[in-house]
Amino acid sequence: MFSPALCRHLGRRRWPSLVTAIMLANAVSACTSRTIMRFDRFDGRSDAGAALQFQQDDAICKGEVAKAQAMAAPIYSGRSLTDAMEAGMLEGQRNQALSRIMVGCMAGRGYSMTVVTVQP
Description:
By secondary structure, the protein is α+β, with helices and mostly antiparallel strands. The protein is about 65% helix and about 15% strand. Helix 2 runs antiparallel to helix 3 (about 80-110). The mean pLDDT is about 80.
């Protein structure tokens, strides 16, 4: 049986390991690159009027994505590992569908999409 003093002593030993693990997790996440969607006009315009039009079109299309997301059925993860994995796959499929809605909406407004990798 463990005494309270022994539990406190063991707890103090774990703090440096916990702090190190958190620091490593933050460092790894800061080093990973990510991809974003960049939209360019089909006609190549980049003047002030085109920038204002882009802001309006971007807001409208993001609203369409938000509306589709709000109408989607909830994804339940359940209690088992299999249920959680299935929920993760469904979430990935939903995110791909939402991305396609954004790309389609922007294409309908005169923009092409390019995937850009962003370094930290």
